[in-house]
Design a protein that fits this description.
It is a single chain. With about 200 residues, the chain is mostly helical. The protein contains nine helices and no strands. The protein is elongated, with a radius of gyration of 19 Å. The N and C termini lie far apart (about 60 Å).
Length: about 200
C-alpha cells in the first residue's frame, strides 16, 4: 500500500512540535513506517522540516480563506478565524518553534503574505472601532498566531481539551484585543505602541 505523504507529515508534526530535535527514527515510528520509507519520501531531515513548514503555512492560509478575513465586521471575522485555525494549531506550534524555517527565503515569503493578511484584519478592526488602537496591528498579528501555537502545545500535552480550544482562544485573545467603552487609556508617560505607518491613518 502506498504511503500517504500528508499522513507522514501529520505524524511528523505531532513529534516535532513537541520535540524539535527528535530523531528521524522516532518520526518514522510515529508514522508507522520504516526509516527507509521515510527517507524515500523525504531525502533528509531538512527536506522533511521544510515540507512540514509548507504544510503549516498552506493550512493557515486556508484558515484565513475559510474565515473570509477580508470581509465584513472584523470581530466576526476574528471569531471565524479562531474556529478555522484551531484544528491545525499543532502546525502553528511547529511553525512558531522551528528555527530552521527562518533560513528558507521561500517559506519566509509565504509567511509574510499570511501575516500581512492578519495585519490588515486588525487594521480594519481598528478603523471600525472594534479593536483597541493603543495596541499595534503588527503586535496583535504576532500575538494571535503565537496564541494559536500555544493552543497546539496545550492540546498535545493534555492541558487543554480540544473541545474547549476555540472558546478558550477566543475568550483570552478577544478579551484583551477588543475595544471596550470603559477601557483604560495608556498613561501619558507610556511609550506609544502605534506608528502612523502601521496603524490607522
Amino acid at each position: 500500500m502506498a504511503t500517504d505523504r500528508d499522513t507522514v507529515l501529520e505524524a511528523a508534526v505531532g513529534v516535532l512540535s513537541r520535540r524539535p530535535t527528535a530523531h528521524l527514527d522516532e518520526i518514522a515510528r510515529a508514522a508507522g513506517i520504516s526509516r527507509a520509507t521515510l527517507h524515500r519520501l523525504f531525502p533528509g531531515r531538512e527536506a522533511l522540516i521544510r515540507e512540514v513548514g509548507l504544510l503549516g503555512l498552506h493550512r493557515f492560509a486556508a484558515a484565513l480563506d475559510t474565515a473570509a478575513v477580508e470581509d465584513g465586521d472584523a470581530e466576526a471575522a476574528l471569531r471565524r478565524l479562531v474556529d478555522a485555525s484551531v484544528p491545525d494549531a499543532a502546525l502553528c506550534a511547529f511553525l512558531a518553534g522551528e528555527n530552521q524555517l527562518y533560513d528558507d527565503d521561500s517559506i519566509n515569503d509565504l509567511w509574510e503574505v499570511q501575516i500581512a493578511r492578519l495585519h490588515a484584519l486588525f487594521l480594519r478592526g481598528q478603523q471600525q472601532g472594534v479593536i483597541r488602537i493603543e495596541l499595534s496591528a503588527a503586535w496583535l498579528s504576532e500575538a494571535f498566531f503565537d496564541l494559536v501555537a500555544g493552543v497546539g502545545w496545550a492540546i498535545q500535552d493534555g492541558r487543554l481539551a480540544p473541545r474547549d480550544a476555540a472558546f478558550s482562544l477566543a475568550e483570552l485573545f478577544l478579551g484583551g484585543a477588543l475595544r471596550r467603552a470603559d477601557a483604560a487609556t495608556p498613561p501619558p508617560t507610556a511609550p506609544s505602541a502605534r506608528t502612523p505607518e502601521t496603524d490607522i491613518p
